[in-house]
Amino acid sequence: MSRLRRYIGQQVLVAVLGVLLVIVSLDAIAALVDQLSTLRGNYDIFAALTYVALYIPSTIYDYLPLAALVGCLIGLGVLANSSELVVMRAAGVSIAQVVGAVMRPVLVFIAIGFVLGEYIAPYTDQYADTRRDLALGHERALQSESGLWFREGDEYMHFNAVLPNGKLYGITRYAFDRAGELEQASFIGSAIYQGEYWTEQEGRITHFKGDRIEKETFAVRKWYTEISPDLLNVLVLNPDELPMQRLHTYAEYQDKQGLDSSEYRLAFWQKALQPLATLSLVVIAISFIFGPLRQTTMGFRVFIGVLVGLIFQTAQKLLGPMSIIMGFSPMYAVLVPIVLCFCYGWLLIYRAR
Fold first, then answer.
1. Would you list the DSSP string of 186-218?
2. Are 274 and 34 in contact (CB under 8 A)?
């Protein structure tokens, strides 16, 4: 049985690798074509190729569930077309043993995906964006078109630009009292992070005291706050580009400040439950081979696999925003399609026994 297990696992491994190679290659070609329209200055074709290459870990991570689904359909489909699965079943190999043989290489891909999503892709993505902006002739400033707004307690802040080296430019701070009245407004030219505090430079402060307004200026002062460069980098990056640890940390910080953390909770659960999502799609692939797709052509199996993958991703993308709008836990929004796939797949497998 160990030899059969290795044989089935090898078939699935090669098929998943082939599908992943095709998908990632097509995505990289499309990304490169998109980058060609932005070539100028030091951002030449070599820089564009480097940019696309640095995004490959993120692409692999994103497409692993779909590649596992289609790869299992192809790998097991080859065995079904050559009647090898029929011979195995006649020799006493159970469906559960086939499922176990398929899951072994899939678990390897899941482990690789975890490493990519947590320790490689978030940093290569940010490095790629930084290199690209520097090559285009301007310093990498992590900001939105209108700057960055932030809240801490009863103080609201706006930053014109946030640099990844721990430097802020154009800081405006508004401090309110418990009654919601503006107490103080300050504008600071720049601030540098010193580890435990920020050093503010060239600031103007306006105090609002009843009917009186008092103004003062300073050259340098210390600003003690829980805000750090890592926390600000979380704000300016898309949630799906962040590792789970940062997502969890910032979601906890938002809850502490009384802010809505559902968007970051949703991204956290999407990453945390991606292994289960991959396994559920593999169960669907196995059930299709032993059930409705046993006698179909390879092209039709690939078509069904892509279709099921797209339906699965669409369901998660629809339920995710619904959880934010309707207020239920983002975990359930991610978990519902996974549970449905598991249940439907095991039902088909049970019927095929």
1. EEEEEEEE-SSSEEEEEEEEEEEETTEEEEEEE
2. no
* Domain that residue 163 falls in: 148-236
Given this model, what pLDDT does residue 304 score? 85
CB 125 within 8 A of CB 31: no
Who's near 216: CB < 8 A, 6+ residues apart?
Answer: 204, 205, 207
Does one domain contain both 38 and 125? Answer: yes
DSSP code of residue 156: E
**Quick check: helix, strand or coil at residue 118?**
helix
- Residues of the chain with pLDDT below 70 are 1, 137-147, 164-165, 235-236, 293-295, 353
What are the angstrom distances between the C-alpha of 259 and each of 150, 225, 232, 296?
Answer: 11, 17, 15, 52
CB 287 within 8 A of CB 344: yes
Q: Are residues 118 and 164 in the same domain?
A: no
- Spatial CA neighbour of 272 closest among 326, 338, 328: 338
Which residue, 214, 236, 258, sits at the end of a domain?
A: 236
Phi, psi of 334 (to 5 degrees): -80, -35
- Residue 165 shares a structural domain with residue 211: yes
Q: Which amino acid makes up residue 37?
A: S
- pLDDT for the residue 219: 93
- Per DSSP, the three-state class of 167 is strand
Here the tokens at position 5 are 């297990």
Q: What are phi and psi of 220, to 5 degrees?
A: -145, 140
| Mode of pairing for the β-strands spanning 212-223 and 148-152 | unpaired
Looking at residue 70, its pLDDT comes to 93
Task: Judge whether 250 lies within some domain.
Answer: no
Number of domains in the chain: 2
| Contacts for 246 with CB less than 8 Å, ≥ 6 apart | 122, 230, 234
Q: Across-strand partners of 169? A: 161, 190
Residue 324 · residue 270 · CB < 8 Å: no
Please report the beta strands in 24-101, taking only residues with DSSP state E, as ranges in sequence order.
Answer: none
